């Protein structure tokens, strides 16, 4: 009996121990499963964070690559960790090339915590800015260099300075031009009176005529200078195209006579158009525009033996006025075509470069345009603008010469 009792007690103790072990094992399994779930959740969060960081890194990389400034990231030892394409475009792709150029600029090795150095490099005006990257202990861990291109800013500053000087010069020219115009007016009056007193077809008559032409030339030059220094003021009035062209032709033929006496090759001048048409425009400004175009044509024909200039004035059924001047000269070079309307640009040694610029301004003031087409052997300029309500076209709308109209 005592042996059986002891055995039963041992079995009971073992059962309790196994029961306690199973409970502890179940708790351990449950805890392990909970830990696995937490590890899985943390892994999921980490993967999402990694994807977000990777996406942000891609965006940041794309932004840095698209910057108009250059970016260079270096270690403290001088190893380039990253640079954007702008640096490769300006300096080079190789790390050794970049470090060599930075050393030539005096940027590397970096001695100051804050650095800003202006650099002229291959026609560019650059500013190099430096910032230090620090670790958690505040110690330098690397450097970032920002290269900013100030070339356009420098050009704009030069343009502003040039415009300021041109404005001051324009004011001075306007003052001088006003002072010159009064004595020129007196010379024109007395030359006109003198021509009435001398007999025609004599050397003295030719001299007086030449004097009047040169006075007129100076007056037009002063008029061009004044027109450039102040915007044209439009005074619309009714005018007959034929009368306008007739007056202009008389002046142009007088210029050709003086050129012929000076030994220049003869130029065939033809004036045609809708001679009876009535338009509304500023006659004085149109005359100045036509004068500039025709005298330019005469000048390009100085070395052409069979020079020809055709002046035409037409009015369309829609009321668009078109003045054109065509010559058979050498044409405008491709390089000069982009600058023909720029002030002070001239291909002639004695030209002021204001003639076509003023023609453009006059056309613009009439709410019109000035266009041209040029090739070797043919150059034609057109000035087109809308006429006022008082315009009218003759029944005969074909191209009529002045002689036919008369």
**Separation of the first and last Cα atoms:** 162 Å
| CATH homologous superfamily descriptor of the largest domain | Histidine kinase-like ATPase, C-terminal domain
* Mean of pLDDT: 78
Could you say which structural class the secondary elements and strand pairing correspond to? alpha+beta
Under CATH, the topology of the largest domain can be stated as: Heat Shock Protein 90
Q: Provide the number of structural domains.
A: 3
Instruction: Look at the structure and give the CATH class of the largest domain.
Output: Alpha Beta
Shape: elongated
Q: Largest sheet at a glance? A: 6 strands, mixed
How is the largest sheet built, in terms of strand order? 11-12-10-9-7-13
| Cα radius of gyration in angstroms | 43 Å
- The CATH architecture of the largest domain is 2-Layer Sandwich
Beta content comes to 15-25%
Q: What is the element string, with H for helices and E for strands? A: HEEHHEEEHHEHEEHEEHHEEEH
List low-pLDDT spans.
395-406
Number of helices: 10
Q: How helix-rich are the residues, as a percent range?
A: 40-55%
Number of strands: 13
Q: What's the structural blueprint in terms of helices and strands?
A:
Blueprint: H1 2-66, E1 70-75, E2 80-83, H2 85-90, H3 95-105, E3 115-121, E4 124-134, E5 140-149, H4 151-197, H5 203-229, E6 237-240, H6 241-261, E7 267-273, E8 278-281, H7 283-300, E9 307-315, E10 320-327, H8 334-337, H9 355-365, E11 369-375, E12 378-386, E13 400-401, H10 402-405
Parallel strand pairs: 7-9
Antiparallel strand pairs: 1-2, 1-5, 3-4, 4-5, 6-8, 7-13, 9-10, 10-12, 11-12
Helix pairs in contact: 4-5, 6-7, 7-9
